[in-house]
Amino acid sequence: MKKMLLFLMLAAAAALLLTGCASSADTLPSPTPGTGNGNGMIQPLMPDMNGQNTQSTAMPESTAQPMNNGNTMTVESAQKAAQDMKEAVMKLSEVDEAWAVPMGDTALVGVKFDSQYQGGADDRLKKMVLTRVQSVDKAITKVAVTDNAALVTGIQALAETLKGASSLDDVNTKAEDMLKQLTVYSE
Question: What's the Cα-to-Cα distance from 150 to each of 118, 122, 130, rounded to whole Å?
Fold first, then answer.
């Protein structure tokens, strides 16, 4: 009986020790095809009293700047999205540093990898980056991810330009030029 009790106590202690080894990495739900918002739930569209859709995302028109694909984004919302995208991408265990610049439905992302990661900017990583970026902005459907030092420096400089920008015109022009040098990934 004492052996059985000792065995159960050791098994319980081992179970407690093993639960301490569980990963604390931030996880995102994988997108479910055809559901719209990426978390497996369909958002209902409820009409208001006038029969209009209540899911509008109206922005103040005084500071609105058109983006390349016709979407409207303010400088402030682009700056916030860039910062949030950067932080979301940096949560990946493979990434040591990241910079992001949203441009219409595309995000330019420059990454510096953790010293232990040897995979490079392959399709698996690009898909993970796209998922992270979409957690910030569902309108992003494509990413241009690079680990090329020169291009990463360019994206970093572009992100700094965006931080101090008063208009998105200059940022969009520079982003379009940089986008010509990158491969765009989309699902």
Answer: 19, 18, 21
DSSP-assigned letter for residue 41: -
Q: Quote the strand ranges of 45-114, DSSP E.
A: 64-66, 72-74, 95-103, 106-113
pTM over 0.85: no
Tell me, what amino acid is at 174? K
**Rounded CA separation 182/153 (Å):** 13
- Alpha helices for the chain (secondary structure H): 2-19, 75-90, 123-136, 149-163, 168-179
Terminus-to-terminus CA distance in the chain, angstroms? 60
Q: Cβ of 109: how many Cβ atoms within 10 Å?
A: 30
pLDDT at 72 (0 to 100): 66
